[in-house]
Write a structure and sequence with these properties.
With about 180 residues, the chain is mainly beta. It has a single domain, classed as Beta Barrel (Lipocalin), CATH 2.40.128.120. It is about 10% helix and about 60% strand. The longest helix has 16 residues. It is globular and about 40 Å long. The N and C termini lie far apart (about 65 Å).
Length: about 180
């Protein structure tokens, strides 16, 4: 009898898991093609915002990014300035592991970040350890980046904890000349 009670819950979880229909291969023919290392080498600036799960704006920020490429390794130093005056820095170390495949690390990333690129798209998944109250909380990020004509790179990331969406981060990157 208990098994019958679990059946609707299992079906719901299975259906919700299937809702993420975006696949990196779907973007293979899109242009302009995004070369992650080429785009982020040098200086880049980004403007972003965090929205809660109900869509309300919670926080805005800017990011100044310095990128250095050495062979199959990209180091990104990101300097964040939030609208409340808080500043943060994250240093990504990204390794190209094959055609369109990447692994990244940063001090506040739990384990490895896994990335795939195809056409104008880049998909990046990782767990980020964020300050929360007197401690920290680990949240999953599911990032999608799309290079636009004219060189603007748009990024939309969903933040989740225990499978529940906490909010979304949106960024617009512009390469400095």
């Amino acid at each position: 009898m208990h098994r019958l009670l679990w059946l609707p819950a299992i079906l719901l979880v299975t259906a919700l898991a299937g809702c993420n229909s975006m696949r990196i291969d779907d973007y293979a023919e899109t242009r302009p093609a995004l070369d992650l290392f080429e785009y982020f080498e040098g200086k880049t600036r980004a403007w972003g915002m965090f929205q809660g799960r109900d869509g309300t704006l919670k926080r805005r920020f800017t990011v100044d990014i310095a990128g250095r490429v050495e062979g199959d390794r990209l180091t990104l130093t990101e300097d964040f300035v939030y609208d409340d005056g808080e500043v943060q820095q994250r240093i990504w170390r990204i390794q190209r592991t094959g055609e369109g495949r990447y692994i990244g690390t940063a001090d506040d990333v739990v384990g490895d970040a896994l990335g795939e690129a195809s056409g104008s798209a880049f998909h990046w998944r990782y767990v980020l350890r964020l300050p929360y109250g007197e401690g920290t909380v680990d949240v999953s990020f599911d990032d999608w980046m799309f290079l636009q004509p004219g060189g603007v790179l748009l990024n939309r990331a969903k933040m989740k904890k225990f499978g529940f969406t906490l909010g979304e981060v949106t960024l617009a990157f512009v390469k400095e000349q």
